[in-house]
Amino acid sequence: MGHKIHPKSFRLSVQNTWSSKWLTNKKKFPYLLEEDWGIREYLRKRLRQTEVDSVSIERFGNNLKITLRVSKPGIVIGRGGKDIESLKKHIEAILGRISKKYPGQNLSKRVLSINVEEVPKNDVSATVVAQELAAQIEHRSTFRRTMKKGLEHILQNPAIAGAKIRMSGRLDGNEISRAEWLSKGTIPLQTLRANIDYGEATAFCSYGAVGIKVWIYKGEFIPNN
User: Which of 50, 114, 202, 203 could serve as a FRET partner for 130 with CA atoms 20 to 30 Å apart?
Assistant: First the structure.
């Protein structure tokens, strides 16, 4: 069966939640959607070296709250919180540029807050692993060795029941692009109660871009209630 659905979207009503939480009317929806896209695109480029696991955006009233889960929070915050303040100013500038496209909306000024959370060391994040593999590929490591080491690193955690890594593009600079993958253990992608963590990243090399996808099976999801 083809993998046409994002594993997290597929389990949205069962175990996952939305990464953007807000409600609005039809007139403001395009504006807020463009804001979310601009924020995520900026953070993806700005924090590429900090291994961002997820970005959550919440809106309530005039408040805009952004929560970052990263594996290296010290780099994001900076000495004395200097970098986080710079990050906040740049995001406010992005929101200001987007608001000029919608002059008739009469949107009130938002109160922006940014929270930074550290990914626990015992929690293996598929997005973080994909970004680490992308960094190794950019440093000219062979893709087979990178995939093998990455898979071994994931399966060192006893809570992981299976994992899969897929790379596509001009691997190792070959003229013809192709896709290669390596997997071990079980990965029940069609089971809704399966806790599948999925992440992807892109390695930008001199010979072209290499796409990296990582699936990690963390056992069955057990609801608290």
Answer: 114
